[in-house]
Records
---
Amino acid sequence: MSNHFFEFLISHAKVYGFIFPSSEIYGGLNATYDYGPHGVELKNNIKEFWWKSMTLLHENIVGVDSSILMHPDIWNASGHIDKFNELLIDNRDSKKRYRPEILIQEYVEKKFLNNSEKKEKILSRLSQSLKKNDLIDVKALIDELCICDPIEKTKNWTDIRHFNMMFKIKNESEKDLYLRPETAQGIFSNFQNIRKSNRMKIPFGIAQIGKSFRNEIFARKFIFRMREFEQMEMQFFILPEEEIKWYEYWRKIRFKWHLELNLEYKKYYKLSDHDSLSHYESAGSDIEFYFPFGFQEIEGIHSRRDFDLKNHEFFSKKKFRIFEYKKNYIPYVIETSLGLDRLFLALLSSSLKKEKLKNGKIRIVLKLPYYLSPIKGAIFPLVQKDGLPEIAKKIFNEIKIHHRLVYDQKESIGKLYRRQDAIGTPFCFTVDYDTIKTDTVTMRNRDTMKQKRIHIKEISRIIEQETGLKKILLKLSCFT
Ligand code: GAP
């Protein structure tokens, strides 16, 4: 995949109503995007699939929907106020901010493309300095390499400092609030409420889908790294002595889930262990996807042990330990944390295709898994006369409450097919003159473009069978 492809994808997402730049009429707002009519349907389908994979396939996983604003002490206990930092350097001339380690990495990648020894030497010094939190040496590297501001081409750099990534909200009468940087804390803080109200016994999990916010100063790559994004997280509470067993279990299950989801693109996924650990984790691994800009994290699986529950017990003075299995203990936690927007981008990247047809023309097709497609079926009249639109509309009205369908008669049939291909609709049903005589329609498949005649009564059943979640959930249930 190339830069050229990435630009094509971004443009396609806008033209076909998947993703628009936020606040575009005012020149946009860095690293924020809006999901359009097809985007929101695709997003909802992904959420439903993840939610059902968690809460239907695992009888011991329940859900929660906690508030975005939380008591500010939550973020003291979670370590986010002290430790959720990135490094930052400003250029005084361009007034732009950069992540110093990324400035160095990108410079070295370009400058020493054919000198891997030199490259490794610099990157290893950078890694050592970062480990020791030696910001003076990181700055020295920028000076020694004579790295310039990419815009102003000057070396007028400030010192490097830490920058907290949480958005703070002024709250006049009380303590300042924060926009949550992860949904997980709404799960930890409700641990006892959920355990008691649902009579849960260890091991059990709590799943949540929701918005998170991070003041990313190096936000780019479209929806890959945004300042407002959605996470699908699950915290699985376990006996401490079962940490390795459950960590391995969730690594395997989550990797398998991605492979099954994007079956044809198995080679685009890899599982790698974290080199450096976040402040809350004792072990961690990433599921990575081959995006148009290379392999990058899509989901993290972390062992958080008792880091969060223990700290909440200390800060809130409430009891987080439980008495179960004849002992008093604070459960350990294995977390699976998936970025919904990143999964969305991964699916667009792997399914957007330009195909050359037999007649030499190019068709653009979005080969999404059928069960995730924003629109499941489209119904057209072949021509706009002789009663065909009325029949097509009647069929549409009869089944529209069962499936996400569109009715369209605005263009010629060929153009209608192309439009549905471009948004990933698995099936198009066309009402023609034979429909009047035989109560049948043509059914065209998105991927093969082959057509066959089916009875009107079959439409709903076929859509349900071919585009519903049942098949994939049944397949996944064999792995849990
Ligand atoms: N609760 C743990 C946690 O938040 P993380 O690795 O920081 O862990 C989990 O984030 C996932 O959230 C990532 O794998 C990624 O998919 C998504 N994510 C993180 N930051 C993001 C951002 N700025 N924009 C979009 N998605 C992001």
---
Amino acid sequence: MDEETSAPVTVIGLGLMGRALASAFLKAGHPTTVWNRTAAKADELLAEGARWAPSVADAVRASPLTVVCVTDYPTAHGLLDADDVDLTGTTLVNLTSGDSTQARDTARWAQQRGARYLDGAVMAVPSTIGTPEAVVLHSGPPADFEAHRPTLGALGTVTHLGADHGLAALYDVAGLAMMWSVLNAWLHGTAMLRTAGVDAATYAPFARQIAAGVADWLPGYAAQVDRGEFPAEVSALETDVRAMAHLVEESRALGVNTELPELIKALADRAIAAGHAGEQYPVLIEEFSRPRQD
Ligand code: NAP
């Protein structure tokens, strides 16, 4: 067994995700210690070769690296804050979902307890863990990530985003914004087309092509956002807003929900009122970068 696969690792939390994480470590050859509140959830992992730790304190002691994946941050703190848990010198990787404030606060807490801390976000479903399809994001001190990259690499495509512990959580929520926005747009289009007897499966390939085409605009639009200059190279916002009005009117006429198109148009109307009619769509970053102004 080589260095990369012989490093021991502990997994605390054996829900759907935690079991997948522990299983991937085992498959990669890592001696894997596990702990879960409900012990029965470890049965299959123990059959695969995992070692059971009788307590959280034992689990943390068993390996230089402990991966935590429970419901939320308060649960993780509840487990690791116990007096008998000695975190001195250990590296904690918290793959529990949460927000950037929780991540940064937990990093400070871990440091006070003498631990090294990486925060993480799993951008994948359990069935993909251990394959390249599973993207697992990490943030925190680069040296701590590099020290455990070979072990963490067993989980899938692992990425280090930067030293700021909040980054993984921020990328996680940014990804959710992307996911739900695309899905909502697709569902809105589907609702409109169904009024004409076009089913969802017929529209889906067309919608996918649109989404992929829009995705191709991102690098150029990102350059405008980063420069803070939005010349109308393709289309001006005042042209876009006429199409938005058309989308709202068509939705209303068809009797489908108008909330999404109304929101899209309201944002553009505010940008135009602020003097951006002749600029290109990414100028809306100004609307997205501040709280709603009524
Ligand atoms: P889950 O199946 O509901 O498992 C929850 C885990 O938290 C279990 O190990 C559970 O222990 C433990 N837990 C909850 N309350 C506890 C408490 N008071 N004391 C001790 N342990 C407690 O959830 P999951 O799907 O594994 O998700 C875990 C984390 O991964 C979440 O933050 C989730 O957002 C994130 N995640 C999940 C997915 C996914 O597709 N499942 C994808 C990305 C990220 P018991 O077994 O004893 O109840």
---
Amino acid sequence: MPHDTPLIATIVAGLGLAFVFGALANRFRIPPLVGYLVAGVLVGPNTPGFVADAGLANELAEIGVILLMFGVGLHFSLKDLLSVRAIAVPGAIVQIGFATALGAGLSWMLGWSMGAGLVFGLALSVASTVVLLRALQERRLIETERGRIAVGWLIVEDLAMVLALVLLPALAGVLGGQEQADVHSSGLLSLPAGYDIWGVVGITLAKVAAFVVVMLMVGRRVIPWILHYVAHTGSRELFRLSVLAIALGVAFGAAKLFGVSLALGAFFAGMIMSESELSHRAAEESLPLRDAFSVLFFVSVGMLFDPFSLLSNGLPILATLAIIVIGKSLAAFVIVVVFGYPLATALMISASLAQIGEFSFILAELGVGLKLLPEQGRDLILAGAILSIVLNPLMFLVIDWMKPWLEARAARTAPPADAKPVGPATEPGQVASVVATAQQEDGPPPKTALTGHAILIGYGRVGGLVGAALKEAELPFLVIEDADKTLAKLKADGVESVAGNAANAEVFAAANPEGASRLILAIPNAFEAGQIVLRARAANPGVNVVARAHSDAEVEHLKGLGADTVIMGEREIARGIVEEVLGHKPSATEPSAA
Ligand code: AMP
């Protein structure tokens, strides 16, 4: 291993081992992120053999956080963000308070100081951006209402942490730690000693506000202008570069100039860009880098972990884990239900927040640096983070499994159907009625009454046209679609639809595949389409399957899985062009559709 190229060594070892262990994990049907964490432990200082540079790994992981938050911003408008503030703000604050109290309680039992309890509790209360966003993305939830609530909630937590990181050094003396004049808190503003607390809070909030104003006034004009300018140069390379430069530049500037976190800065850069028609392309261009760097995030977390601490700290680690996974989830669940949201929303939000990550490490480091938190506290936080990240995919399985049971219970205790979810519920009885209504809105989708019908999956550029033709031909059909906006259009068009990801078993079953005569896959992702073909063949060997593809390899893939006909988009475009130019259909090239 070359010793003079630590950055290359860290990237190569990190990505290489993450790939090997990620693939192994996948082979054993464990989420790949467990493999990435294991790779991190192996290149970390706590296991023998090669040791990667932890500082570098951390910075690389930060790039992953920036690109992820940028990507989320691209799917968000200011309106979306404001639309969830009524639940996200109180939700996050109450949950932070509850988790901090639990953490402080554990700290008290371990005989630590009050200051230690506060830092420890706060560290347990913030969820990891990377873990949450990846979980939402994997389940295609980002653009649903639940996804928006979870992201809004995350942003409030992020803001709270910006405040906590600034306030802790100022308060360290009062809390029984070491008063410090200038603590380097990851690019956040440092404060002269003896500043009064309200002054500090005021300055911090003013800086955040200044950042938002600058983005809305200046960024909103300049960023779309740059994108359009670059798009007109026709250079794909320059376009990619501009997207990256804007995402990273705004995030870094936000952190350096305004004391806002990198993640929050990136989110705003994305949100501003989402108003441009080019945002779709911007998202595509940043995707590959985003995935690579978010893998390095897990590797860098694994590097911090000392597997032997599990032995010496067994019980306190279990207690810490219980606070993160059970305590926080319960708090979030109750809050969301009390606010009148469906049960499935409450479960999804609690599961996605039942973990901790990067912010907790930063807080723990700061706490130890200020002599507020004992070293044992940092070890507990690290172990809690690793274990909760590993358990997170399981949490989603548990909620899938719990949902029918809770719904059945709610149905038994609920008053008749006219109970509607209203503002904040105040009595326990009201909560039950909210759950009951939730079940009608959000249980497994009811099964269609159609038989001998066609199932059309996706109602975008392709599916929308197919649907119109089926309607005109008066053939019975229904659509499975997972984008909220498109579902609204389906409703307006009077077309029967099932909401959700067609790759999900429950959703697919609601379309009655056993009784269907045709399955039409009009979605662009051939991997997802392949899964659906397999599922359809299992339910109904005789169903005729027509699928959409964009390359010869995809055609092969889908046919191999049992599609009868695969239409390759690019070939059809060529046929259309030839027909336009020659005035007749091309005879030479047979379409791949057999
Ligand atoms: P287009 O590429 O414009 O034809 O759009 C594809 C449409 O399919 C979009 O409206 C997506 O929301 C929808 N879509 C993509 N994947 C799925 C899926 N797995 N389940 C349901 N709808 C999907």
